[in-house]
Amino acid sequence: MADTAYHINSTGSAEIISAEPADYIQLLKPRVMSLVVFSGLAGLLVAPGTLHPILAVVAVLCIAVGAGASGAINMWYDRDIDAVMERTQKRPIPMGRMIPGDALGFGIVLAIGSVTVMGLAVNIVAASLLALAILFYVFVYTVWLKRRTPQNIVIGGASGAFPPMIGWAAVTGSVGFESLVLFAMIFFWTPPHFWALALYRSDDYEKAGVPMLPVVAGQRETKRQMLFYTLLLLPLALAPTFMGIAGWLYGGVAAVMGVLFCMAALAVWYDKGDRAPKRMFGFSIFYLFILFALMIADRTVGGGI
User: Fold this and answer.
1) Which one of 104, 148, 160, 188 counts the least CB within 10 Å of its CB?
2) Strand intervals (E) in 145-199
3) Residue 15: helix, strand or coil by DSSP?
């Protein structure tokens, strides 16, 4: 019964469990997916040119499904460490609510389906970028880097930075320099975002044998690198204004938010407990959401405020 999801009932008998729809939704990592979709939508809306509304919806759905596919395959591969870590113990596979092979098959079907539909309905460039993002997350981050190096988040985080490029390519059929800047914003945002989480979950990662930076290099070095990346992100987040893909309202808010992000990193530097890292983790999500929300509003409502 190694490949069967089951539990032991009150009589001591094993009962096979059929996964519920909610379990499949959980495999998609919906909280992560929401930010991925939002950044992909931003790339689509700020790109020069137009895309038929139906095709735009299809493109965004393909980005969402592709991200969910990556999450499902990740949960299949990481089911051993998910069972150890407190943060992930209640996922469907560790809880015995789903057969691992079902999660893998579900992820593969979604991955192939999302890339195929993107290629047939939108364009081959967007489909190729979507395929690259999925393969990068599965093979480069999950399989190769996550269990081997403390730079797993730095390099592997590129997978989460692809959506704005995919959205841009869906409209233009190409990868413009502007979309690379949007990619870079998420790329440099990812390390301080995840290291803030890793600081107050370091025991969890150590127990699972995942070499996150706080486990391998210690808290001081992690905090130093978090501050370094937030300082790099400060001018980078202003680039959309100077490149003409966002207006000055965005630029002003991006400057203020960037300063606040750096202040959050400084608070983490001086804090010896978990309070500042938890705050920075929460603020980092709000930070990225606000920047991309302003880009969308600037293009769709403000017309270049």
Assistant:
1) 148
2) none
3) strand
The tokens of 126 are what? 């967007």
Closest among 91, 121, 153 to 130, alpha carbons compared: 121
CA atoms within 13 A on the CB side of 303: 0
> For the chain, how big is the Rg over CA atoms in Å?
20
What are 148-207's pLDDT values in tens digits? 999 999 998 899 999 999 999 999 999 999 999 999 999 999 999 999 999 999 999 999
Ordered structural domains, the chain, with CATH: 14-175 (1.10.357.140), 180-305 (1.20.120)
Q: In whole angstroms, what is the distance from residue 301 CA to residue 305 CA? A: 9
Residue 203's nearest CA partner among 194, 193, 214 is: 214
User: 175: exposed, middle or buried (C-beta count within 10 Å: 0-12, 13-18, 19+)?
Assistant: middle
